[in-house]
Design goal:
The complex is a heterodimer of chains A (217) and B (206). Chain A is mostly helical and 217 residues long. Helices cover 41% and strands 0% of the residues of chain A. The longest helix of chain A is centred in the first third of the chain and has 23 residues. The radius of gyration of chain A is 25 Å and the shape is extended. Chain B has 206 residues and is mainly alpha-helical. Chain B is 38% helix and 0% strand. In chain B, helix 3 packs across helix 7 and helix 6 crosses helix 7. The chains are: A mainly alpha (217), B mainly alpha (206). Chains A and B meet through helix 1, helix 2 and helix 5 of A and helix 1 and helix 3 of B.
């Protein structure tokens, strides 16, 4: 009578356990890589109703972020501009461009331009733009080099760990208040940024909350 | 057993080829992996509404309503006119003219005015190269002779081809810009007579 199981079957339970461990490792790695904001959000660049180029308006013409996002220093929300803001110039500059038709329609009717939102935090996060911008945190820290983007693209993960990295140690990300909207500025342009930032944190009471209620209510 | 590893490797390659890498461009809205309370039934600024006929969550004030702190009963401060309805040619009492106001005016001017009016107010802003019509210089007689109240009113309500900037600049900021515009005019139209006698020798004038 021959044996039912070959001798190699003795190793099989061990091999199965090893495979399950490797499989669990691969699944964990894949979830970390694909199911987190670094994958799901970064790179999101929706097609907008008007192909507005920040690279042209900010990078080339040198317009300030606040020309359009005019309430960012006093409001929690960095407002989208009204159609009139566009028409300040586009009444005269390319007044007949077909690309600007949605802007002209909005200017005449008063209905908003259906812009697609790029950066959208979960509703349980209470982020305040003015609290950051008025304390030396640049637009750049969360939005990247908008001034070089033809189409706005989600540049940073904006995950909770992204926020906390800075909230736990804000000094390296701070800059003088008059450079907040200068996206090309780097700390290297300052002779002694570390010392300046330490003083700034002290004098301006930069105490970012790290407790739950700081951002969640 | 070897085949299990082959299948795993195949699944990995398949996943990467379908899902791509982190940071790659996408026009599709981000996937919310745990959407528990990410989107709640509440209105946020500038958001959409299915309830109101115009589809907006932001509601305009009903006619005649005045929000708290928005009464605007100081005619000089908010309209640039005195009680008799004439343009004022001084700054309202509520505006304190100091270095801080001037600095604020310079900053606001750089953001909102400079693109068309140019850094020195000569009407040669960057937009001129792109087809903006004639922007008058601040240094011609007609503009120099405007009263402070009229300049304030132009910022608030616009004039000719310039649209209003009252939505972008609060009244205090508009007065700060008026102060800075006056400073630009002083800087451009200064003459030898403006040099204090004690400094004339430094410039080799006497």
């Amino acid at each position: 009578m021959s044996k039912i199981f070959p001798k190699s079957a003795n190793k099989l339970p061990l091999q199965i356990i090893l495979f399950v461990f490797i499989l669990a490792g691969v699944v964990t790695a894949a979830t970390t890589y694909y199911a987190t904001p670094k994958y799901t959000r970064v790179g999101y660049a929706p097609v907008q109703p008007v192909p507005y180029s920040h690279a042209l308006h900010v990078g080339q013409l040198g317009m300030d972020c606040r020309y359009c996002h005019s309430n960012v220093e006093k409001s929690g929300v960095a407002n989208l501009p009204t159609a009139q803001t566009c028409m300040n110039c586009h009444l005269h500059v390319r007044p007949d461009s077909p690309l600007l038709a949605p802007i002209r329609a909005s200017y005449e009717s008063g209905d908003p331009v259906p812009w697609k939102r790029v950066h959208q935090l979960p509703d349980y996060v209470y982020f305040n733009h003015s609290a950051h911008v008025d304390r030396g945190v640049s637009c750049f820290e969360c939005h990247g080099r908008i001034d070089q983007m033809e189409v706005v693209q989600h540049a940073q993960p904006l995950s909770m760990s992204f926020c906390l990295n800075c909230h736990r140690n804000p000094a390296p990300q701070l800059r003088p208040l008059d450079q907040v909207t200068n996206l090309a500025w780097t700390p290297a342009q300052m002779p002694d940024h570390a010392k300046w930032a330490a003083d700034f944190v002290k004098n301006n009471k930069v105490i970012p909350p790290t407790s739950c209620t700081g951002c969640h209510r | 057993m070897r085949y299990a590893y082959y299948v795993l490797l195949f699944v990995c390659v398949l996943t990467v080829s379908v899902m791509g890498f982190r940071g790659s461009r996408s026009v599709k809205p981000p996937l919310e992996v745990f959407p528990d309370m990410d989107r709640q039934a509440k209105y946020k600024p500038q958001s959409a509404s299915v309830f109101f006929a115009d589809g907006r969550a932001d509601r305009p004030l009903p006619p005649g309503v005045v929000a708290r702190g928005e009464l605007r009963d100081d005619s000089e401060l908010f309209r640039g006119k005195n009680a008799a309805g004439q343009w004022i040619n001084h700054f309202p009492a509520a505006v304190k003219i100091d270095a801080r106001l001037m600095e604020r005016g310079r900053e606001r001017f750089t953001i909102y005015c400079q693109p068309c009016h140019g850094a020195v107010g000569d009407g040669n802003g960057i937009t001129k190269q792109y087809g903006m019509g004639v922007t008058p210089s601040y240094h011609i007689d007609r503009i120099v002779n405007l009263t402070d109240g009229e300049i304030f009113n132009t910022i608030t309500n616009g004039r000719n081809t310039m649209l209003p900037y009252g939505d972008k600049l609060v009244p205090e900021d508009r007065w700060a810009v008026v102060a800075y515009v006056r400073a630009l005019q002083r800087a451009q139209l200064g003459t030898v007579k403006d040099v204090p006698p004690s400094h004339k020798s430094e410039l080799g004038l006497q």
